[in-house]
Amino acid sequence: NLFPCLLFTALQILDRIEDVQELIFTKEPDLLRALLPVQTMHLTIIVAHLGTEEAVKKAVLALKQSKTKVEAVLQGKDLNMTFHGIGQFNNQVIYVKMSEEDQKMLSRIAEAVEECFIEMNLDISGSKDFKPHLTFLKLSKAPRLKRRGFRKICSDLYKEYEDSYFGTEVLSQIDLCAMRKKKQESGYYYCECSINVGSRWMEESKEQ
Fold first, then answer.
1. pLDDT per residue as tens digits for the range 87-96
2. SS3 at position 191
3. Which intervals hold domain A-kinase anchor protein 7-like phosphoesterase (predicted)?
4. Residue 95: CB partners within 8 Å, gap ≥ 6?
5. Which CATH number fits domain 4-205: 3.40.640.10, 1.10.600.10, 1.10.760.10, 3.90.1140.10?
6. Which partner for 46 in 87, 100, 127, 143 could form a disulfide, CB atoms 3.0-4.6 Å apart?
7. How far is Cα 182 from Cα 179, in angstroms, rounded to an integer?
8. Is residue 56 helix, strand or coil?
């Protein structure tokens, strides 16, 4: 019910995702309900199951403590995450792919955050192997379609963009978001806390 994740702000990526969504909708209007709003675009790092307020407080602390470890991985440099091409899971989840090189670096950052959650004895058993992907269409979001026999999303719907460059996002903050709480006005998830990482924040804090 809580997940540390990276919020997406790079307009180039979001605009390109909207273009793909529009194309899919034009070809298959039934899939409208399965499209994810671009305001919620994020990369999940881990998934935690926290039953009590006490556990949520611990998770906030764990994320804050992970800042030092994340900065150690980054070593004062920025992580520019490049997105190129479209991938799918079982033809039911469609996502934008992240470059292999950047994935490795982000995996190390995910591990740093994960360590802090484990140290706090928080339940992150729901986390799968870390494969960063930017999901923009999910059949499970539209259960009615499944009942009508709509079980697979055909790659013809997005083939024009299958090998397209989507853009670059700079890692600058990690949010701890709540799945079940009311979303923010912007449409983004309710945020329990955030940490700022990367060189931009290093510069700003030096100036202050």
1. 999 999 999 9
2. strand
3. 3-196
4. 86, 87, 88, 89, 133, 134, 135, 136
5. 3.90.1140.10
6. 127
7. 8
8. helix
